[in-house]
Amino acid sequence: MDLRSLVDLPTLPVRITTRAVDPVWLPPNPGSTLRGAFGAALKALVCVRPDLPQCAPCLLVESCAYSYLFETRAPAGQPGTEGFETLPRPYVIRSAVGEQFADPGSLLTWCATLIGRAIEHFPYFVLAWREMGQRGIGRGRGRFDLQQVEALNLDGSVTETLYDRESNLVRIPTAVVGGPQLDDWVTARADRGTCAPEDLEVRFLTPTLLKYQGKPALAPDFHILWRVLQRRLSLLRLAHGAGRPDVDFAESIRQAEAIPLTRWSAREVTWNRYSRRQDQRVPMR
After folding, report:
1. Which of 165, 54, 72, 182 is nearest to 121 (CA)?
2. Which one of 4, 68, 152, 280 has the minimum C-beta count within 10 Å?
3. Element housing 265 (H / E)
4. Would the pLDDT of 268 be above 90?
């Protein structure tokens, strides 16, 4: 079965480098902290109706960068999005796992991947990251200066510098990663792998919750992982790409159900995050 239409979205992997002005202290799983700080900074920059608790009533909801990037919702009647009030955000934030502390003057970095049409909004990301530094993040709201944003290849090598503090200029990305590069990258990694050709090893680097039939999955069976992945990829393409993918999902799930789980290991993790909108700590589900 040809699944290439699920992974044909252009992506822009970037590395963000900052320099701490104050002591910056991030929690063990800093992705949610960075995401929340990004949303708050972006809203402060572009929102014309900060009095509204949600974007929906605003007349500019269809054209606002904040509503598109941080409160992504399905337009009424959009095919393929029935039952989904919200849609996946068009970016992924990655940071080193484990509590992080940066003394004043030291560097703090994290990575992000912009997906599909979000690449067109790249200047808003840069402005929000700079605003994040002025507002402060983490415990004690430590401030930082945005130093550099670099575009990356899939292997982590730098392809171009998109922003640097010295020039204070934002450059439009010219090199994005698409489906063919992803195919080549996966093939190359598979050739270097230690598993047998018919085996697949999946490592969960951050806390992960897989649900099946509305309940937490007791084991990461491949068909459960595939259901989650194809749903997420399909919705990303609908919301931020070229519409509904040309994939027979029922057949792909039948094939996934035939792939056995040979071994797995995991441990239970309790993880709460702070919600700025709710002004309280909430469990990750």
Report:
1. 72
2. 280
3. none
4. no
